[in-house]
Amino acid sequence: MKKIFPFICAMLCLIATVLWQIFSPSKNYYLICVAVLLISMLPFFFSFENSRPNAREIALIASLIGIAVVSRAVFYLIPQVKPIGAVVVVSGVCLGAKRGYLVGAFSAFISNFIFGQGIWTPFQMVALGLVGFISGMVFERIKANKVGLAFVGFLLTFALYGFIVDMSSVLMLSADLSLPSVLAVYGAGVPFSLVFGITTAVFLFLFGEAFVKKINRLQTKYGIYSNEVKL
Q: Can you spell out the DSSP letters for 48-105?
């Protein structure tokens, strides 16, 4: 019961938020979206806290978040050419789905102190968090070779990340939320998502397998939490 309690609380909060907006005289789609996104993060944070992580595990997670932030910052001048997605995918593969979510969410939040915080931040946090979460789930079942890492990384960063983050642009730029206006915003975002997806795939194809081996070796050497990875 303790394991699912945070998820039950989050679900009740989500239902209450949606009902409040449905019956509210004034509709604020941005407010409800941000509330839903923020509430959806809580189960992952509570679950990690309740797992009583040791200092070594926290240090590894913090190091991966730092690498992800730096990997985004060093390519500051080149739009969407950012290896941060590749680092998050590898984190999910090696640390598991829940910890992959944490690495992704915190990486987006912290790196935005460099790139700029805004109403897009919660969308980026959830999007990158889900990239790490789904990567962890997928590679529990399939072999984490360079082709598999690149393919999954491309799909997640191009389709999933792009869909969620572009939602913030829809809410900012589309007053009526009509289908043509929504499609126009998503269409304009496709080139940017495509560049991000290709960048992620290239970095994972070239360096992903070696990165996974390095993290696995660290986890074995120092007895840190280890997610079984098939290589």
A: HHHT---HHHHHHHHHHHHHHHHHHHTTTTSTT--THHHHHHHHHHHH-HHHHHHHHH
Report the C-alpha gap between 231 and 228 in whole angstroms. Answer: 10
Give CA–CA dist 58/68, Å, rounded.
15
Does position 112 have pLDDT exceeding 80, yes or no? yes
Residue 109, CA distances (Å) to 84, 96, 144, 183, 188 in order: 12, 20, 27, 27, 24
Separation of alpha carbons 90 and 208, rounded Å: 7
Predicted TM-score of the model (pTM): 0.83
Instruction: Report which of 103, 77, 73 is spatially closest to residue 88, judged by C-alpha positions.
Output: 103
For 26-70, write each residue's pLDDT tens digit.
666 667 667 766 777 777 777 777 777 788 888 899 999 999 999
Instruction: Please answer whether residues 226 and 216 qualify as being in contact, where contact means their C-beta atoms are separated by less than 8 angstroms.
Output: yes
- Identity (one letter) of the amino acid at 205? F
Q: Tell me the DSSP string of 153-193.
A: HHHIIIIIIHHHHHHHHHHHH-SS--HHHHHHHHHHHHHHH
